[in-house]
Specification:
Helix content is about 50%, strand content about 0%. The chain is mainly alpha-helical.
């Protein structure tokens, strides 16, 4: 019989591996991007240029606008979500701010306020 605590074969390290996002979190993020793509697809054609989308996403949104609500449109919206995942998170936040401002006013947005100090 053994007495006392068991010895561990390897020392316990405080170094933890970097946290990866769970599959559920990744799916939630992908769904959110698809929803933004759907909002872009129903936005007025005159307002889409003011969102300042990358060319590839703009083409995909224009293509999605021409599709009837069916399986092809759903796949196209998924494709838009895939393209949007390539955008840097900071740029994605700016894109979403512009989209929300356009949706709120229903017209061309005014320029975004700058983060720097004013030159007045």
């Amino acid at each position: 019989m053994r007495k006392g605590p068991r010895k561990r074969p390897f020392p316990k390290e405080d170094i933890s591996p970097p946290k990866e996002k769970s599959r559920s979190q990744l799916k939630r993020e992908m769904t959110a991007l698809q929803k933004i793509g759907e909002e872009l697809a129903v936005l007025s054609p005159q307002l889409i240029p003011y969102v300042e989308l990358p060319e590839e996403i703009l083409e995909a949104v224009v293509s999605a606008r021409s599709l009837k609500p069916c399986e092809a449109r759903r796949r196209q919206l998924q494709y838009i979500g895939v393209l949007m995942r390539r955008i840097a998170p900071g740029d994605m936040e700016e894109l979403e701010k512009r989209l929300r401002r356009i949706q709120k006013t229903g017209r061309r947005p005014s320029p975004l306020p700058s983060d720097g100090s004013s030159s007045a």
